[in-house]
Design a protein that fits this description.
Structural class: mainly beta
CATH topology: YmcC-like fold
Number of helices: 1
Number of domains: 1
Strand order of the largest sheet: 6-5-4-3-2-1-12-11-10-9-8-7
CATH architecture: Beta Barrel
Radius of gyration: 17 Å
Strand content: over 45%
CATH class: Mainly Beta
Shape: globular
Length: 240
């Protein structure tokens, strides 16, 4: 799971309909791709590369691209640390149950909790209790489905376009090989700068198994699953 800045995000959707879906508590087709059982843990190898010139130009770009951990390294000598992501509990927000998710890079303090849940339209996240919800996965779960997240950061407006690009990817990571993975690409375009693309791979009944960011042709980080432990809390029934 991504560690995201707590920004006020103004959500719009393109071609998918609907907004945050605050009163929609029925999970749909996204449910198998992100288990939200309380106590579930994912451990990742998070590798960061020193950004070359093209990526340095994009370093100040807004959430979620600018806030991976303060880990050094270079293309020849990347630095890898463990990132622990876990569902720590549930929180009722505006009549809907949300999972509280906390991430922590080894050697760093835990990041503030983000919140997530499923509804009939997809998989939603909030950057904070008061933040606006946005979709990380959206129906229909089909190649070519796209939606747009729009927000304002430091007085400037941005749009990130999400697209489902594959449903049948095989992904090999330290935790093993996963088949039938859902692949989603999130693209931020800024005039005069190379496309900034984050790719996500979700394995059924496991969750996110891989993530990588590229600015143009330059790889700036990867995150690969090294261990997964499902939770067993009875309160998970709140989140299906």
């Amino acid at each position: 799971m991504v560690v995201l800045l707590a920004l006020a995000v103004l959500l719009t959707l393109s071609g998918c309909g609907g907004g945050g879906g605050e009163v929609d508590n029925t999970p749909g087709a996204s449910l198998p791709y992100v288990p939200l059982t309380v106590g579930t843990q994912w451990r990742y190898d998070y590798t960061k590369y020193t950004q070359p010139a093209a990526a340095l130009a994009a370093k100040s770009l807004p959430w979620p691209r600018s806030n991976r951990g303060a880990v050094g390294g270079s293309k020849a000598d990347p630095v890898t640390v463990e990132n622990l992501v876990q569902v720590t509990g549930t929180q009722m927000i505006d009549g809907s149950p949300w999972a509280a998710i906390v991430s922590q890079l080894v050697g760093s303090n835990p990041a503030p909790a983000v919140y997530a849940r499923h509804n009939s339209q997809g998989f939603l996240r909030k950057q904070s209790l008061g933040g606006a919800p946005f979709y990380m996965i959206h129906n229909p779960i089909a190649v070519g489905t796209t939606w747009v997240v729009s927000y304002v950061y430091q007085g400037s407006a941005y749009q990130e376009t999400y697209e489902i690009v594959a449903l049948d990817q095989t992904v090999s990571v330290p935790a093993g090989e996963y088949t039938n993975c859902l692949q989603i690409e999130n693209t931020l375009k800024v005039t005069g700068q190379p496309d900034d693309v984050i790719s996500y791979w979700y394995a059924p009944n496991v969750g996110e198994v891989k993530e990588e960011r590229r600015v143009g042709a330059n790889l700036t980080w990867t995150m690969q699953l090294k261990a997964y432990a499902p939770g067993t809390s009875p309160s998970a029934s709140l989140l299906r």
